[in-house]
Design goal:
Number of helices: 3
Strand content: 15-25%
Radius of gyration: 27 Å
Mean pLDDT: 75
Length: 120
Amino acid sequence: MTQPVAGGLGGAPRLPSSYGQGPGGQSANLADILERVLDKGVVIAGDIRINLLDIELLTIKLRLVVASVDKAKEMGIDWWENDPSLSSRASRPDRSLVEENERLHAEIAALRAADRSQNP
């Protein structure tokens, strides 16, 4: 019996060739396959281009990475750690910076108002 290769990607886990049996007679279930994929990581990439009379109207680049958190960190992907909406440990803006920003905005508004009164 032939065994299909998932997605044709190199190193991708093989799908079971018969019910409950994987390569080498070992039992392979969805949890095992998922564990392998998350451990190694999978990248799926593709581009969608819409052209009209040889004029490119739209290009969409799709990139999907499926990996465990540990594998993603190993690859240098950790954006969720710095996003305040996703992590309670993400750095929030320093209150002094927020206050300084508000003060500068008020000062700019006052300067604009003074300029308008001098140059009507």
